[in-house]
Amino acid sequence: MDPAAKLLAVLASVAVAYALTLPKRRRSLGRRGAKPPAPLPADFPVTPAKVLAASKRVAPHVHRTPVLTCGCLDAAAGRRLHFKCEVLQKTGSFKVRGATNAALLLEDAASPLVTHSSGNHAQAIALAAKLLGRDAHVVMPDTAPAVKRAAVAGYGAHITLCAPTNAARAEAAAAKCAEVGGSFVHPSDDPDVIAGQGSVAVEFLEQAPFLDALIVPVGGGGLVSGIAVYAKGLRPDLKIIGAEPALVDDAARSKAAGARLGFATGDVVPDTLADGLKTLLGDNTWPVVRDLVDDIITVDEAEIADATKLVWGRMKLCIEPSAGAGVAAATGAAFRARYPPDAYPNVGVVLCGGNLDLAKAAKTLFAEAG
Asked: I need a surface site. Which of 97, 126, 190, 367 has the fewest CB within 10 A?
C-alpha cells in the first residue's frame, strides 16, 4: 500500500473511532430515515415555506437574537442547554416577529391595528403600527403588569382595560374594531402571526443545527406552533417540547385528551407568575400542538420562580417568568426522565421575553432577599 493510501486508511479509522464516541442522538442527526410528523391538513394556513418567507420579510425590522450558553444551567440540566435570547428582542419579546409579519401582510394599509393582549403582543402591535404609520388600539386585562401597560402607551397605542377573562378580552376587542374600523390581529391564532413567530426557529436552527430537542413556553401556542411547523419540516427527528405552568395547563390536558380543552377552572383564569402564558390554544394552534408538538411538560410556580431567579443570577438576563417556565422544564426531573441527557445531549430553550413588573417581582420572586 502506498503512503497516501495508508494515510487515508488511518484517517478513516480515526474518523470511525471518533464517531463511536459521540452521543447516539448526535450521530443520527444527518439521517434521512427519521419518521416524518403526522401531516397537517393540506389547506392548513401555516407551512414551512410561509414561515421561511415571514423570516425574510421581518428580518429588516427585528433583531437576530443571540444563542447563549451557561455552565451553571448545563450542570443543573445534566446536558448542554442553548438559549435563544428573545429577551433581547425589540419590545422585549419574540412577539414583534409575528405582529410585524401580520401588519405587513394586511390588505388594508391604512386601518388601525386592534388586538387584545396581556402585554407582550400589545407592545409588538404598538411598535409595528408605529413603524408603519398606523394607529393601534389594544385591549388589556386590568391585571396586566404595569411595566407592560407603560410600554404599550410609550409606543403610542391606545389602551382599553377589561376584566381578566378570555371572553372579556375578545368582546372588548370586537367592539373596538367596530368602533374604529380596525383590523384585528389575534395575538396567537392569526396564521400570519404564527408564521412570523416561526422565524425564531429559522434563526435558531441556523445558529445551532445540532439540537436534539427544543423547549418552548406555551400559552396561546403561536410561538410553539410556528416553531414546530418549520422545525418538523426541516428536522423531523427534532423533539419539540412545550413548557406550561401547571396552573394553566390547558395545552397539556388537551394533548393528553386528544381534544381541545379550556382551563380546569372554567372562565376564571388562574393567577400564575407566568402571566404571558395565561391564554388558551386556538383553532389554528391546537392542530399543531396536537400533531407536531411531541410533549407538554408542566411546571409549578416554585419551579418557575427558581428558574427565573437562576437565569437572572447566573446569565445576568432579566427574563420574565413566562420564559422561566421553559428553563424550569429544561432543568426539571420530568424532562430528564422522559428525555435522558445521553440520548438528548443538546437542548434548545427559547427565552421568550423579559417584560417583568419589577415591583411585583420584588414581592414574589425576590421577597426572601429583603
From this structure: 367
Q: What is d(CA 45, CA 92) in angstroms, rounded to the nearest whole number? A: 27
**Residues 6 or more apart from 108 whose CB is under 8 A from it?**
183
**Residues designated catalytic:** 95, 118
* pTM (two decimals): 0.87
DSSP letters for 85-148: EGGGSGGGBTHHHHHHHHHHH-S-SSSPEEEE-SSHHHHHHHHHHHHHT--EEEEEETTS-HHH
Q: Over the stretch 177-190, which tens digit does the pLDDT of each residue have?
A: 999 999 999 999 99
pLDDT of 249 higher than 90? yes
Report residue 235 as a C-alpha cell: 428536522
Is the separation of the CB atoms in 140 and 159 below 8 Å?
yes
Q: In the β-sheet with 158-162, what is the strand arrangement from edge to edge?
A: 158-162, 136-141, 113-116, 183-184
Which residues have C-beta within 8 Å of that of residue 134, sequence separation ≥ 6? Answer: 103, 110, 111, 112, 113
d(CA 343, CA 330): 14
